[in-house]
Specification:
The chain has a domain at 151-305. The longest helix has 39 residues, at 349-387. By secondary structure, it is an all-alpha fold. It is globular and about 65 Å long. The chain has helices spanning 11-27, 42-60, 67-104, 112-133, 138-164, 169-173, 179-186, 200-220, 229-245, 248-268, 273-291, 295-305, 311-329, 349-387, 395-416, 423-440. α4 runs parallel beside α16 (423-440) and α14 (349-387) packs parallel to α16. The protein is 73% helix and 0% strand.
């Protein structure tokens, strides 16, 4: 296991690195080292530095492992193998499609921006394996929970500051954000909140991912017979945060997430009176927040539902049509990355990936997301058969439920956008995937 050597042998060190990665992805914008180089994120620098030190330490120790490291590697072997196979398939698909596109299809030339595609894959590989390598007990979970809560609270305060432009916040922050989104959305009509993201739609999907964990704790955590009022309030604040982004796709994602988890909880808890109260309370909370939303929110919602005149929908359809035409010209291996000669603005990640890597690569892409989903469902089913329905789920199972419940929302979001190529958002979602693999490694 690449994280089980040298200075990262201790569980606390790996946990600290994961927490820094989470907070960096939530709070910090990317950094520019030089105008001619792509911007990098702090968590990328930390992950690759830690990986390099691990490899160096492994070489110094002549690839020898302690008995404790061997036991840990044995426990994680199956999950690491799955992650490794999918990563290898990504790389093979990347190489074949670029060779095919450049030398056979004559799509263009191969450049530095195309190399960064491999760096992106490798980053997610490091995030997954780091999360898998941590032994997450109650203390570790409490630390992770506090870190995530701190990040969410920061975003709540920061976003309301953007919304009201407190202390002229939007003016002195503007250089750190994508100017196109900042000028047209923060100062646009209607104005939309970005948080620390470069696009309000990605910020909206972040709130959906956060709600997945909060709602799982709300329905399936141990509350000792008491209504979790503080958790309920936090859920309401995060829902309101999504409304400030005015992301219609994220709004649909929340509706789908709540529907899945509410039906799941209703069935699992055998129609218990307490769970019916929780479901009713969550429905009322969502309805009240929706009906009391701003006029700008309803204006944008109405505009998006008019498919004939919606500028957003018409623009999406035009980009899809161009991408689909390219896909059918080279459906098996695609055209390669070719970022210098082909637009990356497709607004549909399935179409973008199929154009780059063909349907072969698209199958690998889907496996990347579906592997933890399918394996997690199997583990949950086995657990329910052993312990029966109605009891609170343990922490590993809650990680699995959250991922299983939120993945349909992510797949819907990918129709109008895409998560894999958004380094900030995908880092956080890769941690969610890593938590599933971590849970699967436990008996």
């Amino acid at each position: 296991m690449i994280w089980n050597h040298g200075i990262t042998t201790k569980n606390e060190t790996r946990l600290f690195l994961l927490v820094v990665t989470i907070l960096s992805a939530i709070i910090l914008p990317p950094m520019s080292l030089h105008v001619s180089l792509p911007k990098i994120r702090l968590e990328e620098l930390l992950l690759f530095t830690a990986f390099g030190l691990n490899v160096l330490f492994l070489i110094i120790n002549k690839f020898r492992f302690t008995a404790e490291q061997k036991r840990e590697i044995s426990r994680q072997k199956k999950q690491f193998k799955i992650i490794g196979i999918i990563f290898a398939l990504f790389v093979v698909s990347y190489v074949i499609s670029n060779i095919y596109g450049v030398y056979i299809r004559g799509a263009g030339y191969y450049g530095l921006r195309d190399v960064m595609e491999l760096v992106t894959y490798f980053k997610y590989f490091l995030v997954l394996t780091l999360t898998l390598s941590i032994n997450i007990g109650q203390e570790e979970f409490d630390f992770l929970k506090k870190a995530l809560l701190a990040g969410v609270v920061f975003l709540l305060l920061f976003s309301w500051g953007q919304y009201f432009n407190l202390l002229n916040l939007n003016t002195w922050l503007s250089p750190y954000f994508n100017q196109q989104h900042w000028d047209t959305l923060i100062y646009g009509n209607p104005a939309r909140v970005l948080g620390t993201f470069d696009n309000p739609n990605y910020f909206g999907l972040f709130t959906v991912i956060v709600l997945a964990y909060l709602t799982v704790r709300y329905y399936f955590g141990e509350d000792k017979g008491k209504f979790p009022i503080l958790l309920f309030i936090l859920i309401g604040l995060v829902i309101k945060l999504e409304f400030l982004t005015i992301s219609r796709t994220a709004l649909l994602g929340i509706a789908l997430l709540f529907l899945i988890l509410s039906l799941w909880a209703f069935h699992y808890h055998k129609r218990d009176k307490r769970i019916i109260i929780k479901i009713g309370a969550l429905f009322l909370l969502t309805a009240v927040l929706f009906l009391t939303a701003s006029a700008d929110f309803f204006y944008r919602l109405q505009e998006g539902l008019n498919f004939q005149s919606s500028t957003s929908f018409v623009g999406h359809v035009e980009r899809w049509g161009k991408a689909i035409g390219s896909i059918w010209e080279s459906p098996v291996f695609g055209w390669g990355t070719q970022k210098y000669v082909m637009t990356t603005l497709v607004d549909n990640e399935y179409a973008l990936f199929a154009r780059r890597y063909g349907f072969v690569g698209l199958a690998v892409y889907l496996c990347f997301f579906l592997a933890p989903f399918v394996l997690g469902l199997k583990k949950l089913a086995a657990k329910v058969r052993r312990q029966g329905r109605g009891t609170a789920f343990d922490l590993p199972s809650q990680f699995i439920i959250a991922y299983v419940a939120v993945l349909p929302s992510v797949f819907v979001f990918n129709i109008m956008g895409g998560i894999l190529y958004h380094l900030q958002l995908m880092t956080l979602f890769a941690i969610s995937m890593g938590l599933v693999y971590n849970a699967l490694s436990r008996s």
